[in-house]
Fold this protein.
Amino acid sequence: MFVLSLRGSPRAKGNTSVLLSAFLDEVKSLGGRVSTLDVTQMNVMPCRGCGVCERKGFCPQDDDMQAAYPLLRKADLVVLATPIYFYGPTAQLKAFIDRSQALWSRKYALDLEDPGRKWRKGFLLAVGATKGKNLFDGTSLTAKYYFDAIGASFEGTLGYRQLEKVGDMAAHPTALVDAREKAKELSASFLNRKKVLFVCRENACRSQMAAAFARKMAGDRFEVESAGSAPAEKVNPMMETVMAEKGIDMAYLKPSAISDLPDGWHPNGVVSMGCEEACPSFPGAVTEDWDLPDPAKESLDFMRNVRDQVEKRVGHFISESGE
Ligand SMILES: Cc1cc2nc3c(=O)[nH]c(=O)nc-3n(C[C@H](O)[C@H](O)[C@H](O)COP(=O)(O)O)c2cc1C
């Protein structure tokens, strides 16, 4: 399980950070992987409303947001954490949220679906100083539409009032326990998944397609990774084209090596397809080899054919895996 948190408070030791740490500590203790983006330290320009993402599916602004999109795509759970500033999130976090319009565009303007969309979850942690009855309403609404844009179901808000000074959160009677409980609840469905690794030579076509189909079909039952024995520099654009024909969005993927797998990530099953003598072996993992040709230097039709074979085999693999 991979949890991405977006920390929106400029106070590194403030109330938001303390609340978020309790949540993430629980995730880690359950065996989840965690990555936090301190949004206040990132160079993220506000959205210019230029419309490029709606036509091309990418934001042309070259800043730290470009490294954030792939993380959002990898995450099982995304946590927004922010103090309330004028009944909304902080400006830094709002800029980050607005720049996710690029992901909204891929779904709603280009009609492409992120394979993780069905299973990804989103949650909001928020803190404010006043008693305001509607204190979290604006930010919760923003979160709701943000999570839809990035392909996540909005699972709700934990909001705490009357906390102002650094140190107030640590003294709260229930907040940190609540955050831990919520982390446990949101993690539960992700923790019991079988881990499966798809491997080919370059991790540019076959294993990427297999991972995407597996995530889309059964991301609730499988934690999926892919890798290559000799990773290419980028994924194959023809592969992206033929997957887009199926409505599947393969943006923001980069080929990776087996050594790039998360620390301690040990698959229950490994499916290899053409990595030959360099196929990895994982003690105890069930392995199988799919005889699929390398489509890298072939025609678009060849790529389509391999895509269809991969889809069929993944479907079979999932139904054979039962449960
Ligand atoms: C610019 C600014 C605007 C704020 N606006 C609100 C507000 O509208 N309502 C509120 O209850 N608290 C407001 N606060 C107070 C913070 O939400 C509160 O101090 C919170 O605990 C800060 O969290 P942090 O320690 O994580 O930074 C504001 C604080 C600042 C600096």
The chain has a mean pLDDT of 96.
